[in-house]
Amino acid sequence: MRFNVSGKTFQTQLQAVAKVINAKNALSILDNFLIKVEGDRMSITGSDQENVLTAYMEINDSEKDGEIALSAKRLLEVIKEINNQPLTFNINDETKEVEISFLNGHFTFMGVDAAEYPLSREPEADAHTIIFPTSVVQKGIENTLFAVGTDKLRPVMTGICWDIHEGDITFVSSDTHKLVRYINRTFAPGFHANFIMPSKPASILGSIIGKDDADIKLTFDSKGAVFEIGDYLLSCLFIKGAYPNYNRVIPQDSPFKMTVDRQSFITALRRACIFAQKASNLVVLDLDASGVRISAQDPDYSTSAEEKVACDYEGNDISIGFNGQFMIEILSVLKDDTVNLALSGPTRPGVYTPLTQGEGEEILIIQMPVQML
Question: N or C end of the chain, less CB within 10 A?
Fold first, then answer.
C-alpha cells in the first residue's frame, strides 16, 4: 500500500482523532490509529471502546487499497517534527513495516494488523435520523458542557441531556450545584425523543464543528448515536438511566430581581474570590435599592474584600451566599451585556438569564446558594 498525503492536513486530522484515545486503554490495539485507504480517500479512526471518531481526507497517487493500525503516540510525534511537508507512505502489507518519506529523509517503524481493531457498533433497525444546522448543536454544547457533573456515583448527571420535542431541542446539564437549560426553537425536529450524551463525546463534537459546516446528520437508537459532520464521523454510547425532571427544580416565583452589567459583575467577583475561603469560594451578595454589595472573607488568613456594584434591584433587602467561582462560570456563558438574577430567598436557588435572549433561543441557569458564615 502506497500513497501521498499533505502533511498539514494529515496532522490536523490526527490531532482531532487523538482526542478520543485514552492515555491508558484496556485493549492495547486502542493505543493505535486505524488507517484505511480506499481509492483517493483515507480514513483515520480512533476509539476508546465507547466512542469512535473517524476523520476523512483526500490522498494522492494511491496504489492499492488497504488498512493498518499505527501507534498514535509515535505517529503524532513524527508528524509534528516534519513541519507540514508532503509525505509519502509505503506500507508492506505482509510485514506491516511502515516507511514515511519526506523532503530530506524518512522514518521506518512497525504497524499492527488492522484485523485486531474492534468494529464500530451499527445502529439498530428502528434508529431515528435527523439533519439539522450545526449551530443548534454548537450552541447547545457551548451553553451546557461547563455544568456537567463529575460524580461517578450519579452517572446520569455526567452528561448532557438532549430533550427533543416537535418544536425545539432542549439541552440540559447539572452538577447539582448549578443547572443550565438551553432551548433552541430555530429548528423543529417534529418528534419526541431524549438521551444523555456523555461529556467526552460532547466535548469532541463541539471541537470538530467548523464554521463552514452547514448541517449535522444524527442517527440514534436506544443505545447510542452517530454524528456525521463535514469530514468527521463520531459515534458514542449513551449514559443509561432517566434524567431527573429538570423543570421541577427551577423556581417559578422569584420576587427579588437584580439587573446588572455582566462584565462589571464578573470583574468584581474575580476580585472578591481572591479573598474567599478556598474550600467554599463563598461570596456574599447584599442587595438593596442602592445596588449590590459583594463581600468575601477568609478567617483562617484574616483577609476580606468588599465592593459595591451598581444595579437595578426590585424587592426587599436580601443577603445570600454563592460559590463565587461558579458565578463567574455562569456569567461567562451568558453572552449578553446585561444579565438578570432572580431570587426567592437566602436558601433558594438563584436564577440567571440574559436581559435579551437570542432569536428562537432561551437560556436559563440556576445556582444553589452556599450557607453563609
Answer: C
Contact 54, 17 (CB under 8 A): yes
Provide the Cα torsion 53, 54, 55, 61; round to 10°: 160
The Cα–Cα gap between 309 and 265 comes to 7
Sheet holding 105-110, edge to edge: 60-63, 2-5, 87-91, 97-102, 105-110
Name the H helices within the chain.
Answer: 7-18, 72-82, 134-144, 199-208, 262-273, 324-333
- State pTM to two decimals: 0.93
SS3 365: strand
User: Grid coordinates 480514513 are at which residue?
Assistant: 43
The separation between CA 178 and the C-alpha centre of its own chain, rounded to angstroms, equals 16
Query: Rounded to the nearest 10 degrees, what angle do helices 262-273 and 324-333 cross at?
Result: 150
Tell the residue number behind the cell numbers 454589595, with chain if given. 293
CA pair distance 225, 219, nearest whole angstrom: 6
| DSSP β-bridge partners for residue 162 | 171, 195
